Amino acid sequence: MEETISLKELLATLKKRLVMIILITMTAGLVSGVISYFFLTPIYQASTQILVNQEKSELSFYSPSEVQTNLQLISTYNEIIKSSRILDKVIVQLGLDMTADQLGGKITVGSQKDSQLVNVSVQDPDPNMAADIANKTVEVFQKEIVSIMNVDNVSILAPATVTDNQAPIKPQPVMNVAIAIVVGLMAAVGLAFLLEYFDNTIKNEQDIEKILELPILGVIAQIDDQKMEELKLRKAAGTRAAGRGENFGA
After folding, report:
1. H runs (alpha helix) in 45-108
2. What sign for the dihedral angle of Cα 206, 208, 211, 212?
3. Of 21, 79, 198, 204, which one has the greatest count of Cβ atoms within 10 A?
4. What is the model's pLDDT at position 4?
5. Closest CA to 142 of 68, 53, 66
């Protein structure tokens, strides 16, 4: 016999576990908020831009081939910026207590498609340190690229700066709480259906019909204690009234 679950049964399951669903959802949001506000270290980001171009004479003009050459060089420059040759010098000059790999993990280098602008972003718990690392990295790169590739075609377009009351880029408590609430709600609903699936207790006549695959011929109504006491009182009152009637007749 193929079992089907109606929308009414699904809603009944959710209603039955509604308290559990609400508690799990609220707990997930609360835990996420506490962790985001009190335990996660704020991370700040500072970014700088460099321009990759060709050294030109006063009478020359840009040609498409030269621009294409610059664009092809950008991918190479992106790798060189995060190389140990550049980062080791940055560490020494800033007196950083970290390795080149650790410093490289803080730096993100990227550029837009068909653009000669390269963005160098640095993330650090200290916004001033993030700006210092970004500026020093492009400064060292600008000097070293002359000897590495025998070209002088890098210009610092916009140095990294620190603004007043700069907000961290992560964590984002509101976003974390919203995600936690959604995930908690989904987990709670899934748990509610899972508990209902493994609950094999017999609750009503429909459960018996499903298990035995036999039709229900009759149902014995359940009478609670209060109704039972009321019936007893009525019966006793009726007996007393009948007794008084017999005595009166005699």
Report:
1. 64-81, 84-94, 100-106
2. negative
3. 21
4. 57
5. 53
